[in-house]
From TrEMBL:
GO biological process, one term: cytochrome complex assembly
Protein name: Heme exporter protein C
Transmembrane segment boundaries: 9-31, 51-76, 85-108, 120-138, 150-173, 193-212, 224-244, 321-341
Pfam families assigned to the protein according to its UniProt record, in alphabetical order: Cytochrom_C_asm (PF01578)
Organism: Aeropyrum pernix
Lineage: Archaea, Thermoproteota, Thermoprotei, Desulfurococcales, Desulfurococcaceae
Bilayer topology: Multi-pass membrane protein
Organism superkingdom: Archaea
PANTHER family per the UniProt record, alphabetical: CYTOCHROME B_B6 PROTEIN-RELATED, HEME EXPORTER PROTEIN C
Molecular function GO labels: heme binding; heme transmembrane transporter activity
Length: 348
């Protein structure tokens, strides 16, 4: 009993440590994470969404999978503890599922050219999310406790089919969404690999930590909640700070650039907000804000980026709006999960 008591004492500290590490790493990667030098469409910086969207998606699948497993165990053992675990997992899964869908739409608006295209992957994620949202009115509509747990568990087990459909949609059907192999190719770069791997591990760890806290009803000491709140506020403030330059004045999309072997930019052709193009010549040439300035085959890496002209005549690259939005959405999702765990602890 003493060991169990010690374990219950340390669980909140371990869980909150994982959650804070998750928020810190997501903040770091959206500012410093590697991104592709050249992309088919849009801003290469939009690909920093890879440190938010795929980890959120994978965590969603694991959480919904846990809900299905817990429901299966309830149907086998008729132990209400499994049904309660499934309830917490389904609730958190919906929060992460919405985050997955919203961050995917934001990223697609830039890298696919449209926020919504009824792509098989997008559609499958939407159907999955709607199915799990339906679990809660179904559960609350049944008055008899034993029948409520039975029907709800069967529903969650059946809903696993939509999780599988979402995972396989872009593999079995033609889709704009990249497969896991494409993500692994990007992560094969050492720096990108360890950052992406850390994001995946910590995002999953955060999701599972929140479920553990909610299920065990351990309660969260006020100092731990304060640390989470401070970290989350820092993340949200950083998202606002990142997006602010996009609201300050006119910016341009680089269509092409003349870049020398010395990394200096001699001219850029930009697309303006009215759809016209303009060539800006730099005399003297300015240093490219993107490093390296060209790819191995000589293509300028400034192409596709969103830029502004600074007062001193230099170039400054701006993030795409999808990245700070995704950062804010992910932070809010984590905060919502922690709030669920806090309320669960108070009710326990």
């Amino acid at each position: 009993m003493a060991r169990v008591a010690r374990l219950r004492y340390f669980i909140p500290y371990i869980a909150i440590g994982i959650i804070i590490a998750d928020l810190v790493t997501v903040l770091y990667t959206v500012y410093e994470g590697p991104f592709p030098a050249v992309v088919p469409l849009g801003s290469p910086l939009a690909y920093r969404n890879i440190y938010i969207h795929p980890p959120a998606a994978f965590t969603t699948y694991i959480i919904f999978g846990l809900a299905g497993l817990a429901s299966t165990l309830y149907l086998w053992r008729r132990d209400v503890r499994f049904s309660r675990l499934a309830l917490y997992a389904a609730g958190l899964g919906v929060i992460y599922g919405f985050t997955t869908l919203a961050t995917g739409i934001a990223w697609a608006s830039e890298s696919w050219g449209a926020p919504w295209s009824w792509d098989p992957k997008q559609t499958a994620v939407l159907l999955m999310l709607l199915a799990y949202l339906g679990y809660f009115p179904l559960r609350s509509s049944i008055g008899d406790p034993e029948r409520r747990e039975l029907v709800s568990s069967v529903y969650l087990v059946a809903s696993l089919s939509l999780v599988i459909l979402s995972i396989l949609a872009n593999r079995v059907l033609e889709s704009l969404h990249p497969t896991g192999e494409a993500v692994r190719d990007f992560a094969s770069d050492f720096q990108a690999g360890w950052m992406f791997g850390a994001r995946m591990i910590l995002a999953i760890g955060t999701g599972l930590s929140i479920i553990v806290l909610s299920y065990m009803k351990t309660g969260l000491p006020r100092p731990l909640l304060t640390l989470v709140a401070i970290t989350a506020l820092l993340s949200l403030a950083s998202a606002v700070y990142m997006a602010a330059p996009l609201l300050e004045g006119e910016y341009y999309r680089v269509v092409n650039a003349e870049v020398g072997n010395n990394g200096l930019v001699y001219s850029v052709t930009v697309a303006k907000s009215d759809g016209s193009e303009e060539t800006i010549i730099f005399d003297p040439p300015v240093e490219s804000p993107v490093k390296p300035a060209t790819t191995a085959d000589g293509r300028p890496t400034l192409t596709g980026h969103i830029i502004v002209l600074s007062g001193d005549g230099s170039l400054r690259v701006l993030p795409h709006w999808s990245t700070p939005l995704s950062l804010a959405l992910y932070t809010i999702a984590v905060l919502a999960g922690v709030e669920i765990a806090r309320r669960s602890g108070k009710s326990g």
